[in-house]
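1st attempt posting a full record on here, be nice pls
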Amino acid sequence: MMHYGIRNSFFRIFSTIQWKYGVVNNHGCEMLRDLLCRMVQEKKYSLLVLQALYPNGYCEGNEFVTDNYRFLLDDYLCGIYIEKRMDEKIHPIDYGRIQRSYTNHIESHGVDCLGFPESVAFKEFARIARIKLSYDKRYMYPYKPGCSFERAFDDSLLKKCKYEPNMLYEYGFSLKSMYLYRNLDGSINFVVCDFQSTEGELVKLPLSLWKTPSGRKIFDWLHPAGSFPLYRWDLLYGDRRPVLICEDEEQVEYLREKHPWLLKHVCLTTWSGGKSASIDGTDLGALEDRRVGIIVNPTRDGYKIANKLYLAMKRLGVGPIGFLMPWARLQADHESPSALLSAFDKDVTESMAVKGEVADRTQFVEDARERFDLDFDPDYIATAISGKELLALPVSETEVVLGPMIMKGDKVLVYAHRGSGKTWLICFIAVACASGTSLLDGQLVAPRPLRVLVIDGEMKAHELQKRYAQIFKALGTPEHLQENLRIVAATIQKRDIRLETPEDREHYKEEIAWADVIIADSMFCLFPSAMGSQLEGARGFNDFMRANSLRGKTTIVVDHTGKNKRNSYGTIGKELGLELVLKVEKVKNLELFRLSVEKYRNLGSKDIQSIEYMLDVDEEAGVADLIPSFEEDDDADSEGGVMHCMTHKDMWVGAGCDNGQAPSAQDDDHDAPFSPDELDAKIIAALKEKPELSVRKLAAKVGTSKGTADNRRKKLEQAGLLRPKGFSVEQEDDFGVDRDEDAA
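the predicted structure (as tokens):
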């Protein structure tokens, strides 16, 4: 590590065309703006911008011509434009005239002629041209128009040559360290510089030497292209000791200074900036046949970088390769730099001095999977099977979670406009799946109880408690099945819940592993990035859904509609990988709702019919139920009965034949007498006391679900134990009812 006297006073513009407007919000925007500035000095990127702005424009030599402007596309003045005169004929631009009067960069054209605000002009150009800008791309950018990269130079040139301006100085950054990447002969190939703000933020930029056509040399903040050496490669060459690859240059120098005993056993190195983007260009093949250890950073990205580094070296014949795991750092306070540094010292000492070994590939892969849900399976090799093998494959039938719509492993989105009852519906679905019961008179059926995890990011604790109490009572869910439902709520945890990244999900991994069905409410709270318009914003959401599906877990996420009330809010990228999209909306009046299937992958046409229902909440009785729209409340029926829209199959089901088939002689009720139980006795007693009870109120009174109460009442009527209006008849005394009292 070396320091040189680089200051703003040494910088001057030489061959980089600068942007006319220099004010943006922060250094991050400035770096991206600088990247686009450099990119549009290449003809291919300038053309992308110009063709997007002027689809009727055309190229003529090294110019792009429109009705009113002419843009240069050569190496030195790419992006420069002049305004055409009314009588101007098409001919090569007079370069002297450009220098005298109309010299402007393409960014100023956006501000002066297209109405772009100064601070966001670069973003607009990148957007319309579909040019992706990123900090990694800025770090790795290798092009300087009209100049050639100098691959070897002497240390003295760092003080003698001029430097292009550095945008970081304008935002309070200062040079902290310079790390020289040398060739085997000791000459410098390029430099990595660390800049630090007054708040302690660290930014890395590469520095390289370039030669202009006139022979002059100048340093610019650009990365070399092609292959580039490892850090301190000149010291590693010819040394056969094992190599320990550090996370970045600063870590190499720290170990050399604080742990000099390590140098007796291993060589220390790293690669350019310790960035994932620079691994591919690093000359890792120079470590062929060397024993190598990789220091793993204790973050998800750190594990991914370590794995990418491993694979790159493995392809080149480097090995054996081990991993210095961050066991102590994983347990340390990540908000405390001193705690992390102390934990790092412990990891190094434990692995290298105490145990004298590092973790193997299998240990690393298992930890990555358990800790960050990353799949680095070392033994996995994709193998295709033939069509014959496919047909012979022992595949089990898809398990139904909530028939006929939701299957095991499905990725489901339920969306609605605010106030459309989507959360009520989701609560009912959660309880039905947890208890193995049906909803809406059997239109939605959970065949068996499953373990259900509800992750709620917005509902208040008392409202959650109240709603689930009402639903448990309405569906008659016993206490032992209530245990199948677990709830993680932001208002109970007293902290926001996010599920977008593996680090976010780490807090809930044990609960997620436990569950068969995961319900996340809502997208806005748990996956806020997916609410934007960019496809990239849905990555965290899709990763979460896909990971659960691969493990056989059904995931249901609640979302909101946009202002048009027709589509879910945000990017379409969150719907592309789903098996099922359901929409809930109000219809006809404020009391009627419709559940409709918007997208289905595994359903037949008969399974995608819309379901209309009412939400009936009885605060006094403490119950809530979903009532199909073909059913009217008994309170409004003079006979106290329920009016059904029955099919031919329903007729036989209503007659006590569960399979929907006509009864045979053997099935006749006269041959198989109806045997009432304790629940039937409660129903008879309730209807004797109050014959006009609706099915909902009857269910609440006897402590069962509405569907069960309705079916039992029908069977009692068919068996002759109840009259149509609910009066009991024969055998009343068998249930403890005094016949004489009734007669009175």
